[in-house]
Amino acid sequence: MVSIADRAVLVTGANRGIGQALVEEALRRGAKRVYAGTRQPLAHPDGRVTPLPLDVTSAAQTQAAADQVGSLDILINNAGIALYDDLSDRSALERHLAVNLFGTYSVTQAFLPLLTRSRGAIVNILSVNAFAPLPLIPSYSISKAAAFNLTQSLRTLLAGRGVRVHAVLTGIVDTDMSRGIDIPKYRRPLRSPSREPSSTEWRKTRRTSSPIPCPSPWLRAGAAVRPRRSSASTRPSRNSMRPSQKPRPSRHKRGEGHGARDAGFSLRCHER
User: Fold this and answer.
1) Which of 25, 30, 139, 182 has the greatest number of CB atoms lying within 10 Å of its CB?
2) Is the pLDDT of residue 25 over 60?
């Protein structure tokens, strides 16, 4: 795990929502310097915070920001947009890709020399929508899927330089960006924990947390009515099945590969 104490951290999109919370959390964990990248001017009462004018879609601003930073240990690519669309307008998709994919790429490349020098870390704030697209924001989901693949590629390519690359796959968080979506959302506790959770506590939290809702396969197939599940009385028994009908052992047991687990992440989902 990357330690934040006495390190220099840069957070893009730091003016509100998750970015603002990340700045405060970095300060709480003892960061030596926190660079807050925002498109609008930002004032912060803590002297350890250095505001950086940073529009991730502007190559000139991105390079100027990199020139202002003397050293950097952790880069958090958080800046992003999420707009409602239905994929009928190409410009909406291009706008999402410009910020969520190419913005992340450009900032990473600009600060990579500093991160290589410090053997630091890159943290890309992504979304579970990369794997379970939300029909209200398909362009956002596409851009996050692309950003996830960028993250996985960078993880492999930069390992030899000593730079670690991480993906954070968030669910729906209660921020200004998701205010118009009327579904359960994660809300930050009023007080942060006084210590880091142990590995046992973290695993327990993951086991008891709510699974990620996934779109119904019947809806994806375009069916208007979902068929009933067969009851125990009508379901054929295992012994009555023909050899071709009997369930085959899982791929993991046969040793044919681990799919998503090989990519360095796991994802639980179910239907509601």
Assistant:
1) 139
2) yes
